[in-house]
Amino acid sequence: MKQLLRMLDYLGGYKRSMIAAAVLVIVETCFELIIPLLMADLIDTGVAQRDIDLIISKGIQMGICAVLSLVTGLLYARYAARASYGLGAGIREAQYEKVQKYSFSNLDHFDTSSLVTRMTTDVTVIQNSINGGLRPLVRAPFMLVLGIAFSVSMNAKLSLVFFVSAPILGACLFFIVRKAAPMYSVLQRAVDKLNNVVQEGLTAIRAVKAFVRGEYEEEKFSGVNSRLMETGQKTFLYATLNIPAFQFTMYTSIVLIMWFGGNMIISDKLQVGELTGFLSYVLQVMNSLMMLSNVFILLTRSLASAARINEVIDEELDLVSPENAVTEIPDGSVDFDGVSFKYRDTAKEYALSGVDLHINAGETVGILGGTGASKTTLVQLIPRLYDATAGTVRVGGRDVREYELTSLRNAVGIVLQKNLLFSGTIRENLQWGDSEADDDKLWEACRRAGAAEFIERMPGGLSTDLGQGGVNVSGGQKQRLCIARALLKEPKILIFDDSTSAVDTATEAGIRAALAELKDVTKIIIAQRITSVMNTDKIVIMDDGRINAVGTHDELLAGNPIYREIYHSQMREEDGDGTSDNR
Fold first, then answer.
1. Alpha carbons 394 and 386: distance in angstroms, whole number
2. Quick check: helix, strand or coil at residue 323?
3. Residue 427 burial (10 A CB sphere; 0-12, 13-18, 19+)
4. Is residue 454 in a domain?
């Protein structure tokens, strides 16, 4: 229950709305409880004595109570909706804000589809529990206590029915909750899997069509969809058992009350109006118990969702800025001193082992190596996307863990291996690098990145809409826009992670020439093509997470067999067809 109560911390300014809704429920219940008393008096006195004035008076009073009950009910609905949707917005904002602080290793703990479900479906469950559960949660206990009190005062013997039926109803509810509670967690995990398949299918829709795998994807979706349906059916089978159980008990109680009450009327121990009023209280009390059972079902499901939401919020951040963090990065020098790294503490092998590498400020360094050599892992340690497991990474002569995270990452521009653009215009995407950049500055960055020539041909220029994920531009154009975006940061260190693989060699040469003009910027270039790095100040050869060799093109060509093999292999390919194999 603590997990669920924590959710109320995110009500913020909507706490007053929730309190107002609870008060309105109590007022509404009071009006409803007065009506049976008026009804009993109307029948036993007004009807029995043919007192028209009393009948009209009591009828008007009952009508006023009914209208006031309706008004307070409508007001409750308004305030409850404000509180529930305000709570949902607060929870989603708290989760999203926490995820933005996650390091890459934190993100590795959650599937993207699971995070989406936790911010949407799970939050909706919490919202519904407030919107649909607040009224019965407040109303049911209040009506239950007062209803039993009024019914006992009217006829103590008949009220014994409550003390027989209540334990039966409690046992039914205990059985239902015990069976349904574990199933809700299973149900939410099934929603995670469904979202994962949908996300993958829509993200890779072009590949699906290119490989004619539509039927396979349909079958995969059908499988997870069927499992979700079966899990939902099994879960709600138990949850809905409370309705027939409660109705059976309620109607059995009514039959017994009518039987015993009828005999008491015949023997002049009870009046008709009292029995009518008593039955009204019976219905109210039994309905209160049924509402309480529904609340328990809602809370049971909400507990599973609250636990999943709290997992996101309680995730301990792996990377945080230290106290009295340094905010000024003096230069772009980079040093790796005995650096080793593994993605998880439980991993048996290190992705990087014993790396010693020193890069001077302003140098241009190329990194070559086969697939799985951990080239990307190495450069991700520079802006602290991950922390080294052992050893020290220094930027500007200081351990990166001494810097304030935002300052460090602002000083490092990185073009990731997977090029990512956002929905919006070219201008809006480029301004991720510098939100204050004017068009002149944007065009200058685009010229350096080789992007100006295709942007100028577009009818909208910088105002051209890229579509979701940049679907309106080619792979090579995406890469050049991402390079321009990184240049706009004016960083001290620029990292290019195989970020020119989709452009032709002539365009790549133009980009290299433009980057060479940035004398005070340290440039680290990860590449597959040897022509991309052969003119750098030094080249790093990586093999199986280790530094195999460091040197210039001529030095490595003369003395390193791995570099020599890569060089001769790629040169033969270019000599064979007159062009690079990466077109």
1. 14
2. coil
3. middle
4. no
How far is residue 540's CA from residue 529's CA, in Å, rounded to a whole number?
14
Give the number of domains in the chain. 2
61 lies in the same domain as 144: yes
pLDDT < 50 positions in the chain = 578-583
Q: Is 212 helix (H, G, I), strand (E, B) or coil?
A: coil
Q: How far apart are CA 337 and CA 88, in angstroms?
A: 47
CA separation for the pair 274, 154 (Å, rounded): 7
* pLDDT at 255 (0 to 100): 83
CB 271 within 8 Å of CB 44: yes
* Full domain range(s) for residue 185: 2-314
CATH number of 388's domain: 3.40.50.300
Contact between residue 379 and residue 495 where contact means Cβ atoms under 8 Å apart? yes
Task: Examine the domain organization and report whether 388 and 340 are in the same domain.
Answer: yes
Per residue in 116-143, pLDDT (tens digit) is: 889 988 899 898 888 888 888 887 777 7
pLDDT of the residue at 35: 80
Domain end marker among 261, 284, 314: 314
The residue assigned the tokens 């979700």 is 228
Q: Are residues 123 and 211 in the same domain?
A: yes
What is the chain's alpha carbon radius of gyration, rounded to the nearest angstrom? 35
Amino acid at 172: C
